[in-house]
């Protein structure tokens, strides 16, 4: 009961964050997507992930001006009580750069200990100034 309550509380904090004023959220489900944001605005990128595989999403911070503010992981509420091996979501929160026109954020799915292997998947988010 305690564990279920803790998981639900954590999920509530993650999903309630989506309604915070001034933060735009996008769920990156496809290989490529786009998002319109204002300069210096905060935005969050949510990427679903299959738990139990050892994989995690990584962000290529060297190729963009957007600054990573925070990163978190939470279970996605489901009808099957978040069974092991279920879907989780990784949430990356960024601050858009001042005066940018557009840039592409790159996320790679891989096992952290297999850096030399090709990523299992790559997803791109094209950011455009509003």
TrEMBL record:
Q: Does the keyword Cell membrane apply?
A: no
> According to its UniProt record, what is one Pfam family this protein matches?
Inhibitor_I42
Which stretches make up the Proteinase inhibitor I42 chagasin domain? 37-121
Q: Name one GO molecular function term.
A: cysteine-type endopeptidase inhibitor activity
Which keywords belong to this entry?
A: Protease inhibitor, Thiol protease inhibitor
Q: Say which domain of life the source belongs to.
A: Bacteria
Q: Which InterPro entries match?
A: Chagasin-like_sf, Prot_inh_I42_chagasin
Question: SUPFAM superfamilies of this UniProt entry?
Answer: ICP-like
Write down what this protein is called.
Chagasin family peptidase inhibitor I42
Provide the organism lineage as a comma list.
Answer: Bacteria, Pseudomonadati, Bacteroidota, Chitinophagia, Chitinophagales
């Amino acid at each position: 009961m305690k564990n279920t309550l803790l998981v639900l509380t954590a999920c509530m904090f993650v999903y309630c964050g989506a309604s915070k004023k001034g933060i735009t959220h996008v769920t990156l489900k496809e290989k490529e997507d786009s998002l319109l944001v204002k300069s210096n605005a905060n935005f969050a990128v949510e990427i679903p992930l299959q738990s139990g595989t050892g994989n995690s999403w990584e962000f290529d911070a060297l190729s963009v001006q957007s600054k990573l503010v925070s990163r978190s992981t939470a279970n996605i509420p489901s009808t099957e009580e978040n069974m092991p091996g279920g879907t989780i979501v990784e949430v990356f929160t960024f601050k858009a750069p001042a005066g940018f026109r557009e840039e592409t954020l790159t996320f790679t799915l891989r096992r952290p200990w297999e850096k030399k292997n090709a990523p299992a998947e790559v997803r791109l988010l094209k950011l455009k100034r509003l």
